[in-house]
Amino acid sequence: MTVLKIEKLVCGYEPNKPIVKEVSFDVDEGAFLGVVGPNGCGKTTLLKAIAGLLKPMHGSIMLGNHLLTSMDRRELAREIAFVPQLMEPVSGFSVGDLVMLGRTPYFQRFSFETADDYEAVRWAIEELNIDGLTDRSVTELSGGEFQRVAIARALAQEPRLLILDEPISHLDLRYQVNICKLLKKLRTHRSIIATFHDLNVAARFCSHLILMKNGSIIAQGLPNEVVTPENIWKAYRIKVSVKKDTTSHKAKYVVLP
Amino acid sequence: MAIKKNDQKRIIILISGLIAIAILVMFLSLLVGSVFISPKDLWTSEILWQVRLPRVLLAAFVGMLLSTSGVVLQGVLRNPLADPYILGVSAGGAIGAAISIVLGAQFVVLGMSSVPAMAFLFSLLAVYVVYRLSRIGKKTSPETLLLAGVALSAFCSAVLSLIVIISGNLQSIYFWLLGSLSSANWTNVYTVIPYAVIGLGIAYFYSKELNALLLGEDMAHTLGVEVEKSRVMLIIAASFMSAAAVSVSGLVGFVGLIVPHWIRMLVGPNHRILVPVSALAGAIFVVLADTISRTIFSPTEIPIGIVMSLAGAPFFLYLLRKRRMEGK
Asked: Scanning A64, A231, B311, B326, which has the fewest C-beta atoms within 10 Å of its C-beta?
């Protein structure tokens, strides 16, 4: 089932200066789509457009059967959740409080949090294996711990589509793998789109990849179709050799010459 | 499991407790003053019914208004140092009031008489100017915001002094600069009640938006919040509340800064709790400050604005330094 359908999307911050140019792709349920490409290629801009933070200049974004731009914010927030590259920890909030903020699109004006809200928060916290952190203040967490809290907050929105902007780029190797494994697990019953800098990690964990350069997609498909020496040369102007793991169809290594 | 359902019970206990303290403080404040009224004369005392009760009630409302206004501005502008006094909103309101007094304007807008109406208009104008000045691109810079507020306050003070000198109407305008509740009467009380009810209502109504805004503008958007709409609504409500307070008490500073800070330390940044608790604490705080201002050098009364600034300015500096040391 197609969750997200993007056709000839053009978007950017200033009129006549598009950052993302005529981009088209689909995302199916259960997909973990990695968006890779050199700095300034438009990855983050693309994510912002999908998250509804940036209006398309041309083209369309369809979420299920609805045009994204025709949905109201609350409705959209129950379908799409966004984890920014760096979220500010709010001092004074515990992990539980912060994750509860993910329930905002479900809150009614004058009532307190409902049993459903508590249940969703509990579930999100369990999914991210941060039960032990619930009472801790968010300002005293490590980068890797806080990133899991940030993802739990997004998950509490019970979204169909989870969008993450460079979820692992400021984490150490252990947390990079840890977060990617969690995301891989979370994609069941929903779809995930995330940007990555590390091609190895992206190729290893994502189900599909998009390689961008100068706002356009230069390759998309399964990781082994995208991560090839030719494509990487096109995108980064760097010669690499890609060693394939013969036991699966995934490109496991990207090696510099 | 730490996400406690009994939080709600705790909040109800806290709020009931604060209401009880507020009533107690107000009761005690009724008894003291240049003449002590013994509790047994309570029902027959003229001073009590015509002078002290409206004054104590007005102090409570002013505290509530200023403190809620502070909570709202801090949330909306994402700056813990924002408050109506520091941002120049109060000073703007005072100019409006002064102009209205000098011109002797007599009109009624939306049920407001000319003085509070002009104070309201000028408060709104001041907050708009400060907000626009500090907004660069899509971001509001906290430093620019503070500086713009300070500059605007200085400018407003100068304009006020100018109005005082030109008009020769020193006494009634000076009242605005010092901030005092000494002219409290029942009409004042009736004037501020609707502002307090509506302002507090809006602040509470938008508490989930205020919470989402803690994460920043973009995050609030992705949580389903209409950021611009909420922001405009909340800034109008905050200006409304501070203008109402200014119109009956002049410039009473720092309430909107000190009270929300204390309360945030006690109950955390969740606005659903922060808003009502700060409102109550603000009421208690100003009633106490006003009681001190009219009893400490009795029978001479010192304006409450002086008491607040004496206590508030050092506290503000303390907060500034503390934030710096936390590397924020």
From this structure: B326
